[in-house]
Design goal:
By secondary structure, the protein is α/β, with parallel strands linked by helices. It is globular and about 70 Å long. The strands form three sheets. A seven-stranded mixed beta sheet has the order 1-9-8-5-4-2-3, with helices on both faces. A three-stranded antiparallel beta sheet has the order 7-6-11, with no helix packed on it. The chain has a three-stranded antiparallel beta sheet with strand order 10-12-13. It is built from twelve helices and 13 strands. It folds into two domains: 27-258, Aspartate Aminotransferase, domain 2, CATH 3.40.640; 261-374, Aspartate Aminotransferase, domain 1, CATH 3.90.1150.10. Strand 2, helix 4 and strand 3 (110-113) form a beta-alpha-beta unit. Helix content is 35%, strand content 14%. The two termini are 35 Å apart. Helix 3 (71-81) packs across helix 7 (215-222) and helix 9 (261-279) packs parallel to helix 12. It binds pyridoxal-5'-phosphate (PLP).
Length: 376
């Protein structure tokens, strides 16, 4: 059933503008493709998955893609390929969705929090350097809300200390930094195609390998430690593997999504840039700080405000959803052992909210949001 804002049983209800929305290709594109795969007799991992990996890799412009059942699965594989095992220390951020840090625990790693820049919510080379210990093995960096981190600086830090770099770009599909596609400087990058991301396959993810030498082990880890294509009776599993492969149904959705990915990202970016311009220089408000060379993909719009509750209330009165999306992960009891002072995160947490910024925010909605936030 479709909600028609003009027919609300006689009551005026401002149409609600959500923070997230599921983006689907047109039925005319998706349904015939889905019907073909559903009745092809091959709905598991097959040709469509290989085609999706190839299309995604070409679009991204770097690395070797390995399609997975989720972004979390891709993160777990990235950590394993980075050599993280029981007791290995990984520097991570608490300003993220839980899967980032759950995956470290899946691999048996120990989390050590790096603080974030209070003006954007992301770790930086400086905050990671300050958190390093002699035991650190890898850096897990998140481009939170679609704001890309300066990975070249982090790459230098990692190389100086012999560390692996994993980039969680679940929010940052289509973002760029210094003219390079997101993930170009990381050893392993992951994307999520879960329901409300820039593009969705229902559930799904992509692991992108900088070094194609990891490909065959990545594929084996993705599928019970076995080599697909070799008869099950002929193949020997030599390490524990997982059921992390993508299926042809999800990949078919992914292929259809790729046709509109640039338009989707462009719509997020146009809204984000309009908000940046509208909220700059306003008393009590600030857009998230952008590093020079950053081209965010604005999955959500990050706004810093002196009085976040008042802004959220004004937006709610205008029928716009807003607010804090994730609980800072260091407050979860499951991560209590990692707790340490994070003054940058304290400041970011006290001031930030997220606004809707995606392709469903058109010019009229954008103006409504700006008016609600600024009062003009
Ligand atoms: C920052 C971040 N990392 C990783 C994930 C995991 O992705 P998935 O839900 O596809 O497992 C998500 C989203 O759910 C996320 O927001």
């Amino acid at each position: 059933m479709h909600y028609d804002p003009s027919v609300t049983d006689g009551f005026f209800m401002p149409p609600s503008l959500p923070l997230f929305k599921v983006r689907m290709p047109p039925e005319s594109v998706l349904l015939p493709a889905l019907a073909r795969v559903l009745y092809s007799g091959q709905i598991g991992e097959g040709e469509a998955v290989a085609q999706f990996e190839s299309a995604f890799g070409q679009w991204l412009g770097h690395g070797t893609p390995v399609a997975c059942s989720s972004g979390t699965a891709a993160l777990h594989l990235a950590l394993l390929l980075a050599g993280i095992g029981p007791g290995d220390e990984v520097l991570s951020t608490a300003m993220t969705a839980e899967p980032t840090n759950m995956a470290i625990r899946h691999a048996g790693g120990l989390i050590r929090w790096a603080d974030v820049d209070p003006q954007c919510g992301n770790v930086t080379a400086a905050t990671l350097a300050a958190a390093l210990t002699p035991a650190t093995k890898a850096l897990l960096v998140v481009d939170y809300a679609g704001l890309p981190v300066d990975m070249a600086a982090i790459r230098s830090l990692a190389d100086a200390h012999g560390l692996r770099v994993i980039e969680d770009a679940a929010h940052a599909l289509g973002a760029r930094f210094g003219g390079k596609g997101i993930g170009a400087d990381a050893d392993f990058t992951i994307f999520s195609f879960q329901a409300i991301k820039h593009i969705t396959t229902g559930d799904g993810g992509m692991l992108v390998l900088r070094d194609p030498g990891h490909l065959s082990r990545a594929r084996r880890l993705r599928w019970f430690g076995l080599t697909r294509g070799v008869a099950r009776t002929e193949v020997a599993a030599t390490e524990v593997g997982y059921k992390y492969n993508m299926n042809n149904i999800a990949a078919t959705m992914g292929l259809a999504q790729m046709e509109g990915v640039d338009q989707a990202v462009a719509a997020h970016r146009a809204n984000g840039q309009a908000f940046d311009a509208a909220f700059s220089g306003r008393a009590g408000l600030a857009p998230a700080r952008l590093e020079a060379g950053a081209e965010p993909s604005y999955w959500l719009y990050t706004l810093l405000c002196d009085d976040p509750a008042a802004i959220v209330a004004r937006l709610e009165a205008a029928g716009v959803a807003s607010g804090v999306v994730h609980r800072r992960n260091d407050l979860h009891p499951v991560f209590a052992a990692a707790r340490r002072p994070l003054p940058g995160l304290d400041r970011f947490s006290a001031r930030h909210i997220h606004l809707p910024c995606g392709w469903w925010v058109g010019e009229a909605e954008r103006a409504r949001i700006i008016e609600a936030v600024t009062g003009s």
